[in-house]
Amino acid sequence: DWNMSDYVERAIAKIRETVGDKKVILGLSGGVDSSVAAALIHKAIGNQLTCVFVDNGLLRKNERKSVEDLFKRNFKMRFITAKAAPLFLKKLKGVTDPERKRKIIGKTFVEVFDKTVKSIGQVDFLAQGTLYPDVIESVSIDGNPASLIKSHHNVGGLPKRMKLKLLEPLRELFKDEVRALGKELGLAHDVLWRHPFPGPGLGVRVVGEITKKRLDVLREADAILIEEMKSSGYYGKVWQSFAVFLPVKTVGVMGDERTYDNVIALRIVESLDAMTADWAHIPHELLAKISNRIINEVKGVNRVCLDISSKPPSTIEWE
Ligand code: XMP
User: Fold this and answer.
1) Residue 200 within a domain
2) Where in this chain does the record put each GMPS ATP-PPase domain (predicted)?
């Protein structure tokens, strides 16, 4: 019978044997897989592990702080934040095509990660939170050709170019087993049940050109949506829920003033594997609360729309 604490013991022994006295680097996104991989490897080899978190400026509200608080403060891991937001935004300036955005974000990520790793000195292993389904479906992780970028982030040219050996302690596990392992390692429910978040982040949720101002508006609206989804208990019932910034201005009234501001779309879907998805039938009262709060609290937004499209033919993301 399968016992999680025995599994942890064996996994730790294996990591120690593989790594010896060498150093390991891990690109931490804050997602379920990389978080569990980090906690496991840290338990095995402590300070021989360094985590690198790339702040690409396309993160959600408080995302960087919560990742830093958990891994740097709480777990006391060696942790480097690559503060690269201005670089990403500079490279994305004027770009509107979704696939070009993805390419630029992926390429810049590799550059920043590479440079950060070089600054650490001698490193022998690159750790990754690759799961069993990633191994067998090496072409596309979730049926989205765009997610090749994700696999690019995970297993792309990095190790070869940097002459690193791969350390993939979750390679034999499915998602539910990774969550059970994470729980055993003391990771919080919130971390283990986070919705999937694309590698290009808010870069593909600001439709059209990405600017700091648009990202800031989106971050505020998205944070309200997530907060309300969590406090109502609906967060755990859906596959993904997020806000999208639309580069459209519409007319509104605020007091005696006429406004001319942007539109936020709410994307809330149910799915089993992201290959197909249905828009989630959320209670109207909750939607009303989310809409009112976004319009009242987020400067620059005067209209909220609900996306009621299913996949296929619509995709989950808007870009
Ligand atoms: P779509 O929009 O194709 O998304 O229905 C299916 C799932 O994949 C995620 N997604 C991405 N993940 N890089 C990623 O790492 C990407 O470029 C990307 N595009 C979409 C999306 O959030 C959903 O879970």
Assistant:
1) no
2) 2-194
34 known ligand binder = yes
CB 293 within 8 A of CB 228: yes
Residue 319 lies in a domain: no
pLDDT digits (tens, 9 = 90+) for 76-125: 999 999 999 999 999 999 999 999 999 999 999 999 999 999 999 899 99
What CATH number corresponds to the domain at position 99? 3.40.50.620
**Inside any domain, residue 317:** no
Same domain for 68 and 165, yes or no, is yes
Pocket residues: Cβ below 6 A from ligand 1: 102, 142, 144, 146-147, 149-150, 196, 198-200, 240, 274, 311, 315-317
Q: Which atom of ligand 1 is nearest to the CA of 314?
A: 5
Complex ipTM value: 0.99
Nearest atom in ligand 1 to 195's CA: 24
Q: Flag whether 29 is marked binding.
A: yes
Going from the C-alpha of 252 to that of each of 213, 219, 257, 289, 305, the distances in angstroms are 20, 21, 8, 18, 14
* CA dihedral of residues 105, 155, 28, 172 (deg, nearest 10): 150
